[in-house]
M48 family metallopeptidase (Thermomonas beijingensis), 268 residues
Amino acid sequence: MLAAASLGLLVACATTTSPTGRTQYVGAVSQLQLDQMGAQAFAEAKATTPLSKEGRLTAYVGCVVTAIATQLPAPWNGLHWDYALFQNDETNAWALPGGKIGVYTGIFKVAKDQDQLAAVIAHEIGHVVARHHDERITRQAYAQLGLGVAGAAVGSRYGEAVQQTTGQVGGALLQGAFLLPNSRAQESEADVVGQEMMAKAGFNPNGAVALWRNMGAADGSRPLQWLSTHPDPESRLRELQQRAEGLTPVMQAAHTTGHQPRCQPQNQ
């Protein structure tokens, strides 16, 4: 049965190329299902986390979201990008399939202007555009099937206790050597995609450099690089700085065509 399930998953999944040329395995669930999952998660977040009462800040976030969304490639520019500003001190934001964006008020501790806020939002939208949610779900489906096959084989020979141990150890190895490294690759890719998107929308790509410098200064302790889901901070800054130089003409071209965002909190 597990072998049949594995074959079914292989048939359903497809190989594609990410925006940076990386090979991806996607398709464990349909785009419609991904959009429905995104809408459900967004609704649950709004039901369980207080929304900010600062209308001027919510409008500020919306200004940045709209400026970026209108310059996205198809089909992403055809989505209605819904957003919410949550009252939460964490320096965090996220985007989900189906065009759902959540920003926490804590992000303003490190995103000091529109360009830095655009770097946050574009990075998160980059995960959606690069189909990272689809890719992670597909990889996890493969991982779970693989563990099921291995555990069943061991259990049939050595008993249930050994089968359970195999599942626990195998799960830890997959998390450290398979799933997390993929997440670091996705984070780096979202940097590339997001920085380009913000420049095309007319935001200064150097805002991404300033943002992650502020993030590094605010984060006094980090997990070991091997277990981290984010790229090494120093390498990340170097790459962002190098790309910003090449993307400055992209920003300037956006300005000449009328895409020059002027987003700021009202009454400031």
User: Anything to note?
Assistant: Residues 1-7, 146-181, 223-227 have pLDDT under 50 and may be disordered. The first helix runs from residue 2 to 12. The beta strands are 14-17, 23-26, 82-86, 93-96, 100-104.
